[in-house]
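We were asked to recover a plausible sequence for a given structure. The inputs and outputs are reproduced exactly as logged, with field labels preserved.

PROBLEM: sequence recovery
POSITIONS: 456
GIVEN STRUCTURE:
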């Protein structure tokens, strides 16, 4: 297999070019220099020349991995998995390390190649979460923190840490059964089991077996389960079953357990019984460290410190946006002529849709409605309807209060936005929340979270 692929390499590359219509420049700069390095157990390692212009490996991987696999199969008849690596790295790490690593990813499709403890930048805003995650990864038997409950706004590293924990345990404790799942997948599984369960009871049994026989369960974005009664109940049974038998649980959410208004006290305290930790938005130093780390990983220094500082001091909301901004500028730098450094002006231009440094974000009533409905898992039509159940009046009054606090709208305008007939309804709602804020700590915290979501 190895020699056949090696011998036919140029034929494979030509087939790739012709079938996928790769144009001349791209072909000569990227594809032609690809070299076959080795093939073991169906994994083919292909080397890429070092590149000064940035993240070329990821790009080639995304665009050409599958076409190359297909080309190899068509020309040689072998079904393989291709891994691209930089030549220098292969010399340093040796081929076999890539093959072992690759087998892990094939066996555990939920893992991500991009997320590990090694490339998580630790700083003052996330060091406690990092330390707790690492402690659990090192002692995965439910004895240190169980459950470990991580919460934060979006894009701050929860999923990255959960993948890191899973990967660490899989690599260091291969006997343990580890399962990472998103609450979306969990919900789909439950719904599917209930649907097919009507004709076939084994569906539910299989679903339960899948989740209840693991040693470590990591469940991401639990807030999407809360409020869906059937799934929620199934999840708590799973939680209890695992917890009682000393299995490790790791949960992430957009808010701490005591802010999950819809949730029974019993479960809130259950979630809180291990270790609950938040991750804060990055400060300037953290953002700079993350950007520098990205450049180091991409093996480039195409962007000057001045440009990195510009990005770090303007994209503050979260790390996902920070990475998006970095990618966009890198793309611009790749379009520059070889050897030409891009200037701050080019970076500013590249990011003009991302950031407008001197403009304050204006908060609109619509935006408030969107954030509040999302927070309480409601749909907009119910919130704006005439129904007067408490699960609707309360969020509605919170909307009134936030519109009154954070926008310049008059009470009549707020009434119109919230489809109330009369501005006195708004006055009443705002006062009610103001009064409750004096004695209800939970409400204080809810308003605090909502304000943070509105003005990150
Ligand atoms: P969340 O799950 O909290 O929404 P993610 O874990 O998906 O956030 O993180 C968003 C992006 O930011 C990912 O690409 C992740 O790798 C990156 N990221 C977050 N925190 C860090 C960190 N401390 N160091 C390096 N990358 C990070
Ligand atoms: Mg996430």
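RECOVERED SEQUENCE:
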């Amino acid at each position: 297999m190895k020699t056949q692929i090696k011998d036919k390499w140029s034929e494979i590359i030509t087939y790739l070019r012709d079938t996928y219509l790769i144009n001349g420049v791209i072909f000569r700069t990227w594809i032609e220099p690809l070299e076959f390095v080795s093939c073991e157990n169906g994994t083919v390692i292909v080397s890429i020349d070092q590149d000064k212009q940035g993240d070329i490996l990821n790009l080639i991987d995304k665009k050409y991995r599958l076409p190359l696999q297909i080309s190899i199969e068509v020309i040689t008849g072998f079904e393989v998995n291709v891994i691209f690596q930089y030549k220098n790295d292969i010399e340093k790490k040796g081929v076999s390390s890539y093959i072992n690593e690759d087998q892990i990813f094939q066996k555990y499709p939920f893992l991500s190649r991009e997320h590990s403890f090694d490339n998580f930048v630790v700083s003052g805003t996330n060091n406690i979460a990092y330390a707790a995650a690492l402690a659990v990864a090192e002692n995965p038997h439910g004895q240190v923190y169980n459950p470990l409950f991580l919460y934060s706004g979006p894009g701050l590293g929860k999923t990255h840490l959960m993948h890191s924990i899973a990967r660490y345990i899989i690599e260091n404790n291969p006997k343990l059964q580890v399962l990472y799942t998103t609450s979306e997948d969990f919900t789909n599984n439950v719904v599917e089991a209930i649907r097919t369960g009507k004709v076939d009871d084994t569906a539910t049994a299989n679903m339960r077996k899948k989740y209840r026989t693991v040693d470590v369960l990591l469940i991401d974005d639990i807030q999407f389960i809360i409020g869906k009664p059937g799934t929620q109940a199934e999840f708590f049974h799973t939680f209890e079953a695992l917890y009682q038998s000393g299995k490790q649980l790791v949960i992430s959410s957009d808010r701490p357990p005591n802010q999950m208004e819809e949730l029974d006290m019993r479960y809130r305290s259950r979630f809180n019984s291990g270790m609950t930790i938040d991750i804060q938005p990055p400060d300037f130093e953290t953002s700079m460290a993350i950007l520098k780390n990205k450049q180091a990983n991409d093996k480039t220094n195409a962007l000057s410190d001045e440009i990195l500082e510009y990005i770090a001091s303007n994209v503050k909301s979260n790390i996902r946006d920070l990475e998006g901004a970095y990618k966009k500028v890198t793309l611009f730098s790749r379009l520059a002529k070889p050897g030409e450094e891009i200037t701050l002006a080019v970076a500013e231009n590249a990011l003009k849709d991302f950031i407008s440094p001197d403009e304050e974000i204006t908060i609109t009533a619509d935006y408030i409605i969107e954030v509040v409905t999302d927070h309480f898992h409601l749909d907009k039509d119910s919130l704006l309807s005439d129904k007067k159940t408490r699960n609707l009046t309360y969020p509605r009054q919170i909307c009134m209060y936030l519109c009154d606090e954070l926008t310049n709208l008059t009470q009549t305008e707020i009434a119109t936005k919230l489809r109330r007939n009369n501005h006195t309804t708004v006055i009443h709602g705002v006062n009610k929340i103001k009064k409750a804020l004096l004695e209800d700590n939970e409400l204080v915290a809810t308003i605090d979270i909502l304000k943070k979501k509105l003005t990150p």
